[in-house]
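Homework help thread (please don't just give me the answer)

Our assignment gives two proteins as sequence + structure token strings and asks us to describe the second one. The first is just a warm-up. Here they are:
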Amino acid sequence: MIAFVPALAFAAVVGSGLMAGLFFVFSVCVMQALSRLPPEEGIAAMNAINVVIQNPLFLAAFMGTALLGLALIVAAFVWGGEGSYLLAAGGLAYIVGTLMVTIVFNVPLNDALAAARGEAAVEIWQQRYLTDWVWWNHVRTIASIGALALLVLGYARS
């Protein structure tokens, strides 16, 4: 394996760990806390979170880890080496289970919640957000933890 792959893997481990922690906290406490608030307050808090989370540090960790995962997939097939297929599997788990799930499922619900007003917002919150968004966040949590585990194992072997 070429010399820079372990450095890419280490950075991907850090990024995946950050995302796993973020999604885990939403799954085990943030969404449960927001669901206990009156719907209008939970909606307002979630909309505020969805605005402030779109910042350079978050986007660097979130998107940067996906780019690192893609680089590790390419490296596995081009250069190979010990641990490379674990690194590729970790990259794939992150890209599919974290990035793609976010784009396909979580972001559209974020957008729908932000655009809705009054009873329509409450209906989205109660009927879709606290069920579907939370369920897909659990998927992101599991995927990013799985990616982290695979990346750590691949890094250890590289």
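The one we have to describe:
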Amino acid sequence: MPAAWSLHQQLTQDTIDIGDLPLCRVLVIKDANYPWLLLVPRREGAVEVIDLDEVSQAQLMTEVSRVARALKEITKCDKLNIAALGNVVPQLHVHIIARRRNDAAWPRPVWGVVPPLAHDAAEVQNFISAIRRKIWLG
């Protein structure tokens, strides 16, 4: 991992750190409306998936699958939304969002539908602990 890598300021502000997989930092978005995780490859200058070499691209997909599977098992959601948009934050990051047919935005995308809802401290810590166990972070 290059020493120059750092998490984009907006992502630092909008997330809670869960830990690091071999390639990605795993984060929870600060919005209790949805179980919403973020994977950020720790590669300086990566904006698009194609900015990663092929080995790192394969590792990213492995980590996305691991985290998505864990999120689905924990939340029992109806659908997973997985996307690498980056229109506002240029640093490569992948959203993994557990969706339910009765959530605040269903069936629309989650962005801008309702204001972010603060997490209950105990609930988010329980969620983080469950995710960490499922993705082998502790």
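TA reply:
I won't write it for you, but here's a hint about the kind of observation we're looking for: Helices lie at 9-14, 54-75, 121-134.
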